[in-house]
Every structure is written in C-alpha cells, then in structure tokens.
Amino acid sequence: MVFSLLMALVLAFLIGWVSQRMGMCLVKASEQLLAGRPTLFVALTSCGLFGLLLAPLYRFSEVSLPLYSPGISYPLLVSGGLLFGVASVLNNGCSVGTLTRFACGNVNKLFTVIGWVLGIVLWYYMRMMPEQKTLLMPEISNRHYWLLIGVVALVLIFLVAIQGNKHLVFSSMLLGALTSALYAFEPLWTPSVFFYDVSRMFWQADMAISARRIAVFVMLLAGMLSFTVYRKNFRFEAFTPSKAGVHLLAGILMGIGASMMLGGNDSQILLVFPTLSVASSIPMVSIATGILVSLWCKKRFTN
Predict the structure, then answer these.
(1) Could you give the count of Cα atoms lying within 13 Å of 148 in the half-sphere of its Cβ?
(2) Which of 56, 73, 147, 209 has its CA 20 to 30 A from that of 101?
C-alpha cells in the first residue's frame, strides 16, 4: 500500500516535470503546426500510443489500462470536440496547458479550472442524465498491439523524415511510458477526470475524492512548478478581472465540451485515441479541428 502510493506520487511528479519541459499544450502544438513545425503536435497526440508499447509488461503483471471509447452519438462527439477546441483557444491552453501556465505563475488560469467544474455541473443539470463510458479494451489484444506498433513506426518515420526536435520525441515517448505506468497505480489521475469528480460532488451527496487522488494531483502540479523554478521561468501574473472572466467563460465551455465527449483532451489522448477505432478517433480529430480553425480565424482577423 505504501509502495503503491509512493510510486504514484513519484510518477505524478515526473509527469508534471516532463509536461512542463515539453510545453505540453495542444493549443501551443497546433500553433507550431500552422507555422510549419509539426513535431510537437505529432509527438503530443502520439504519446498515448507510445505508452501502450509497454502493454506486454502490463499483461505479464496482470494490470489493465482503463482504455475506453465514448458510448454516445457521433454528432455529440463532434460538437463536443469542436466546442472544446474553440474554448481551448479562447483560454490559450488545453487542460494540461492550463495547469502548466498556472504553475508558471498565471493565477488567472485558476478561473479556467473553476469554470471547467461549473461547465460540467451545468451540462449535467441541462441533460439530467448520467454519463456513461463503454469499455472497449480491458485487455490489449495481439492484433491491436501489432496495429499499434505499425502506427507508432509510421509516426517515428514521419518525425525522423521532417528532422523534428529529437528531445521532444524522446520526451513524448517518456511521457507516454510514465502516464501509462501511473494508470497502474492510480487509474483516475488525469486532470479532466479529477475535475469531473469534483463536479460530481455538486449533485452526488456521497461523492468524495480520496486523499490519495488529491496528493497525486498536488504532486503533478509540484512537478510542473519544480521545473519552472529550475529553469527560472516563474513569472507571477496577478489577478486581472477581465482576463479571469475570459478564462472563466473558456473553462465553462471546456467543461461542457468535455462532458459531451466524456473526457478532456488529456483523457482523449491517453485513453480514447489509443484504442485506434473510428469512434475513439472522432473526439481527437474534432478537438484538433476546433483548435486549428480557431487559431486560423484568430490570426486572420487580428492581422
């Protein structure tokens, strides 16, 4: 029990450190993609696939990763992904990107988290129905694993062909390994799942978040903050009502979008997209489309 907790805390800290080092943010990656530098975008969206390369080890250890595909209609997945992508650009950061910037000293990003929780609560009371997940892969089949190897090989060949940043590629592979390992010790560690369970406390009286999960989340932030201090990049940005209001609105929209597709971009990258099915690819493609189109419009109308 103590060993399991210690491993979860260490892995969470390392994930925070590597995420901050990578500049892990889908909005930032999309900006670089539009500028002709696709390395971060490809590496980031592929890190969940990299993590699944350890599947034989998990099978030997009798550990199942919580991979799933949203059991809802395609229109809801598409609209939720697009809304989440647009809101992420408004927020200037996705779920993890929000936390990395908060760890850099931007206190206004805290309102994104508050808005995210409020958005989930709002969606729940608008829909008045429970959210469901359809588990697709309690175990990773041999067929899926070979398909995974093929996709990862194509990704690596592409990154080598464009002569991408080798440090980013290595960090992405390391991040994939760390995140998949953390699922073995704490299956509910991702920020979007944490925010969702905080939201459930508003309508589910017996809902409680364990001290273990809170400690893992705090260590994730501690890892981000530690790297920021190490690189001397900490820049305190004081509370500004106008900026906080924008982040609050963006957070509400992100929370609604995440509720519609059953998971924020972190869960989509690490748990949904790696199943490599058509249904599980729709949210990721929709999020990326929403971000890219919003960035293009933002650039076009601000110039």
Answers:
(1) 20
(2) 209
Reported as a single tens digit per residue, the pLDDT across 103-112 is: 999 999 999 9
Sign of the four-CA dihedral 223, 225, 228, 229 = negative
DSSP run (H or E) holding 133: strand 133-137
Which letter does DSSP use for residue 52 in this model?
Answer: G
Name every residue whose Cβ is closer than 8 Å to that of residue 42 and which is 6 or more positions away in sequence. Answer: 155, 158, 159, 164
Report the distance separating Cα 176 and Cα 43, nearest Å.
10
Helix orientation angle between 39-51 and 142-161, rounded to the nearest 10 degrees = 160
Place of tokens 């925010």: 195
- In this predicted model, what pLDDT tens digit does every residue of 168-211 receive, in sequence order? 778 888 888 899 889 888 988 999 999 999 999 998 888 899 99
Token pair for residue 160? 């080598």
Alpha helix locations (H) across the chain?
A: 2-22, 26-34, 39-51, 55-60, 74-91, 95-103, 110-127, 142-161, 166-185, 191-200, 211-230, 241-260, 265-267, 278-302
Distance (Å, whole) CA 296 – CA 293: 5
Domain count, the chain: 1
Range of the structural domain that residue 188 is part of: 2-302
Query: How is residue 188 annotated by DSSP?
Result: T
Tell me the C-alpha to C-alpha distance, in Å, between residue 16 and each of 36, 45, 212: 27, 17, 17
Among the listed residues 17, 64, 14, 26, the one whose alpha carbon sits nearest the alpha carbon of residue 258: 26
SS3 17: helix
Q: Per-residue pLDDT for 238 more than 70?
A: yes
